[in-house]
# Entry
Amino acid sequence: MKILICISKTPDTTAKIAFAENNTKFATDGVQWIINPYDEWYALVRAIELKEKDPSIELHLINVGSADSEPIIRKALALGGDEAIRINSDSADSFFVAAQIAHAAKEGAYDLILTGKETIDYNGSSIGGMIAEILDLPFISHAIKLDNEGSDSIVTREIEGGEETNKVSMPLIISCQKGMAEQRIPNMKGIMGARTKPLKVLEPIECETLTSIVSFDLPPAKSGVKLISPDNPEELVRLLHEESKSI
Amino acid sequence: MSVLIFIDQAEGIIKKSSFEAASYGAQIAISMGTSAEAIVVGKTQDDLNKLGSYGITKVHYIEDTNIKNYDAQVYTKIIGDAIEAIGATVIIFSNNTSAKAIAPRLSVRLKAGLVSGAIALPDMSNGFVVKKSVFSGKAFAQVSILTAKKIISLNPNSFNIIKGDGTAEIVAMAANVPSSKIEVTAINKITGEIPLGEADIVVSGGRGLKGPENWNLVTDLATALGAATACSRPVADIHWRPHHEHVGQTGLAIAPNLYIAIGISGAIQHLAGVNRSKTIVVINKDPEAPFFKAADYGIVGDAFEVVPKITAAVKKLKDIS
Ligand SMILES: Cc1cc2nc3c(=O)[nH]c(=O)nc-3n(C[C@H](O)[C@H](O)[C@H](O)COP(=O)(O)OP(=O)(O)OC[C@H]3O[C@@H](n4cnc5c(N)ncnc54)[C@H](O)[C@@H]3O)c2cc1C
# Structure
């Protein structure tokens, strides 16, 4: 069985969010890059857990990105991926990225394709669904549990106000979120081993984009907090009722 | 070239966020000089006529016994066919879990550019540019949709409902329903809870509450306010509260009218998911807690003493009004 895990490179969660070139580009100066947490903590770690139960499973990683992505790909290999593919291109828009991954996925004949539920930079939550439509495969989003039973996947997903468990025969695409697995730290053996694991670089396929980012801006700063005495919390309720009209 | 709004239901009842999407779509239709129509898939218990008061002139209702479970692949085919038949060019979703599964599929199927997480009306003065939330609420991006057909998925609580006195015509629409490859084996509903993503008021607790046994502080205040409950990441990680309550950069991003944070320090990753809330109240015993910088109102004090008094004052207010 082969699992493909999509990993995206995102700024560290504490990175300063600022923009350059007339607010058209994210300012990358001094930014630390990480594997998108949803891809790493949930999709990748769950795939590693499945492999721990069944060592015959092969775990392949895929990233659409320039050579700058290699450190995060190596980290994912250190955590437990077997090999990786990098599609050598900046990510133009979600459709472009999904088309690249779908193309590579078709070549690789994967049983499962896992993504995070969204990236923490563009918050598109689109890649998994787009890959699924391109490949005409079932897609389960917001999954919080995943197990395999023979040729079926048993996936529990979050629905508004609850959870739903689905049985789907492979292949399929799943987007993963909290609940799936717990964050892991790569160990020394993993880090050493990752250096020699195969990382294949492929050129992108020809593909159009459907959207483009025109500019960025930052939210206005808050005007300052109004402090209320802890001896008079009733005053807070009055302000919320009469001033901000929130209650 | 109409605007088509996907109306989402929970147990056959139209969700509040769908009324926001309807109002939003109706405004776009006015700017484009066209009509706003809605599509409802699956059996409804609700009165579809009332969509008229949100600016919808026609509701396409697809009710077919072959639509058994919610499967994005099946819905995409049904909605995609309907869009072709209706001739809609702009398609609006509310950006919830169902939209996040259907909209990207539909984008590929129709070759229609998708902006998910929109927070304002499109600017059509130069192309078709939609403002969306990025970096988990820390910034905004203006995204241009380059294709003839366009899909927008609107963030809940980002657009005010506009109500008028219009009426909608309901038309039954036939569909060619493909069989689902997904078999639902179990459904576990948490009943009686207000869905966090749509909630108007959210009361949230952090590690400052010391343990799950103290959560009545949060839930009592939430009940008094008719609010949903949330928590910081460590609180969910150590299983004091369920995972779905985790808000922040790696949990749910929310934008309620009022967010009350109790015993939460206000780490940057937490703020990312809540800073689009209209009014933020922080209760923390540490005057240096970073959350106060992002707050509108604050009380520096011990939550165990302050919160029950707030709850009592809220109850009093509700009794009077
Ligand atoms: C990659 C990454 C992603 C993350 N994503 C998220 C996320 O999505 N959401 C999130 O929340 N966090 C996230 N975090 C964690 C975040 O950095 C903080 O650690 C976390 O938000 C802190 O939770 P807390 O405020 O509940 O706890 P603490 O930081 O321990 O703060 C507790 C607060 O309670 C106050 N307090 C204590 N006793 C009382 C009392 N009696 N009365 C009043 N106040 C009291 C204290 O003064 C303190 O400010 C992430 C971290 C990383 C590295």
Summary: Chain A touches chain B through 82 residues (CB under 8 Å).
